[in-house]
Design brief:
- The strands form two sheets. This protein has a two-stranded antiparallel sheet. Strands 3-4 form a two-stranded antiparallel sheet.
- The chain has 334 residues and is mainly alpha-helical.
- Helices cover 77% and strands 3% of the residues.
- β1 and β2 form a beta hairpin.
- It has a single domain, classed as Formate dehydrogenase/DMSO reductase fold.
- It is built from 13 helices and four strands.
Length: 334
C-alpha cells in the first residue's frame, strides 16, 4: 500500500532532509567560499547575510535524524554503524563551525583563527555529508537485520565523486545566495565565483547521475523500465531548462534567478535519488515497510509531527520574511 503510515513518514523525513540540504546548503556554501572572499569586510558581510537564519536551518537536520530514529529504528540501527565515522566528523564540523560563527565577532586577537574555523568546519561537514550520501546510494551490506560491512566501506571512488558534487553544489548555492543578498562590488565578486562553479556543478551532476545507474543493477532497471522511462526522458529536459535559467541569470547579473535555478537543480537531483531508492530506505536490503516501527508508534508520532512541522515552517518563513532584501556592509546582527 503506497499511502500507509510508513510511506507517509518516509515522505515527511525526506522532506525534512531536503529542507536541510537546500537551507543549510547555502550556509555551508558561504563557509566553503570563505577563503576566496577578498577581504575581511566581504567575509563579515557574507556571514551577516545568514546570521538571522543559519541556526534555524539546522532544525531540519535534527528533525530528519530524530525522525529516522523514532519511525524507522531498524534503518537507523543499520545506517548508523555503517556511517559512524562520517556522522561523527560531520557533527564535529557543524559544532566547530557554529562556535566559530559566534566567536569571530567577539575577539580581535583570534579573529583570523575563527574565520578559518568557520571555513574548515563548513568544508568538513559538507565532505562528510557527500561521502555518506555516496555510501548510502551504493548500498549497505546487511545480514540478519544488522550492518555486516567493514569500517571503510563508505570510502569508494563513487562516494568521493558524490562528495565532490555536493561540495560544488553547496559552493554554488552559497555564491548565488550572496548574489541574491548583496549589491555592488560584493555582488560582482559573488558573480565571478558563481560563473565557473555553475558548469562544474552541472558536469558533476551528470557524472554522478551516469555513475548511479551502474552502481546497482536495480537502479538501471528502475530508471529505464516502463513507465519510468518517461521520467528518464523528461528529467534531462527539466535540468536543461534550469541550467539555461542559471546561466542566463549569471550572465545578466540577475539577483534571484541564479539562486532559484540552483535550488531547482538540487530538488531535481533529490527527486532522482528518491526514484532510485524507492521502495527501499536502506538499499538494497531494507524497504520502507520492513524498517518501520509498529503502526501504534507511527500514529502517535504523526500527531506530534502534524503540530510540529507547520510550526517549524511558520517560524522559518517568518524569519526569511523579516530579514528579506539586501544586506549592506553597515548592517549587522551581532
Amino acid at each position: 500500500m503506497l499511502f500507509d503510515l510508513a510511506h507517509i513518514w518516509a515522505a515527511l523525513i525526506a522532506f525534512a532532509v531536503l529542507s536541510y540540504v537546500i537551507l543549510d546548503g547555502f550556509d555551508l556554501g558561504i563557509g566553503i567560499l570563505f577563503p576566496l572572499l577578498r577581504n575581511r569586510q566581504d567575509r563579515h558581510l557574507a556571514m551577516n547575510t545568514i546570521a538571522p537564519v543559519w541556526d534555524g536551518n539546522e532544525t531540519w537536520l535534527v528533525l530528519g535524524g530524530g525522525g529516522l530514529f523514532a519511525v524507522f529504528p531498524l534503518a537507523y540501527a543499520v545506517v548508523m554503524p555503517a556511517l559512524y565515522p562520517l556522522i561523527i566528523v560531520m557533527l564535529l564540523g557543524l559544532i566547530f563551525r557554529g562556535v566559530a560563527f559566534e566567536f569571530v565577532h567577539r575577539t580581535r586577537r583570534m579573529q583570523a583563527f575563527w574565520e578559518w574555523g568557520f571555513a574548515v568546519g563548513s568544508l568538513v561537514a559538507a565532505v562528510a555529508q557527500g561521502l555518506a550520501l555516496g555510501a548510502l546510494v551504493q548500498g549497505i551490506a546487511v545480514e540478519g537485520r544488522a550492518f555486516a560491512g567493514g569500517t571503510w566501506d563508505w570510502l569508494t571512488p563513487f562516494s568521493a565523486l558524490t562528495a565532490l558534487a555536493l561540495l560544488a553544489g553547496y559552493a554554488l548555492l552559497g555564491a548565488t545566495w550572496l548574489i541574491l543578498k548583496t549589491e555592488g562590488a560584493p555582488q560582482r565578486r559573488a558573480l565571478a565565483l558563481a560563473r565557473p562553479l555553475a558548469p562544474g556543478f552541472v558536469g558533476l551532476i551528470g557524472a554522478v547521475s551516469l555513475a548511479t545507474v551502474f552502481v546497482r543493477p536495480e537502479y538501471m532497471e528502475r530508471w529505464f523500465g516502463w513507465p519510468m522511462m518517461l521520467v528518464s526522458l523528461g528529467m534531462p529536459l527539466l535540468v536543461l531548462g534550469l541550467v539555461w535559467a542559471l546561466w542566463t541569470g549569471l550572465q545578466r547579473g540577475l539577483s534571484a534567478r541564479p539562486f532559484l535555478a540552483t535550488l531547482g537543480l538540487f530538488i531535481l537531483s533529490y527527486i532522482g535519488l528518491g526514484i532510485s531508492f524507492f521502495p527501499h530506505i536502506v538499499p538494497p536490503a531494507m524497504t520502507i515497510t520492513e524498517a518501520a516501527a509498529p503502526d501504534s508508534s507511527l500514529h502517535f508520532l504523526l500527531v506530534g509531527a502534524v503540530v510540529l512541522i507547520p510550526m517549524i515552517l511558520a517560524y522559518t518563513s517568518y524569519s526569511y520574511w523579516v530579514f528579506r532584501g539586501k544586506v549592506r556592509p553597515e548592517d549587522g546582527y551581532h
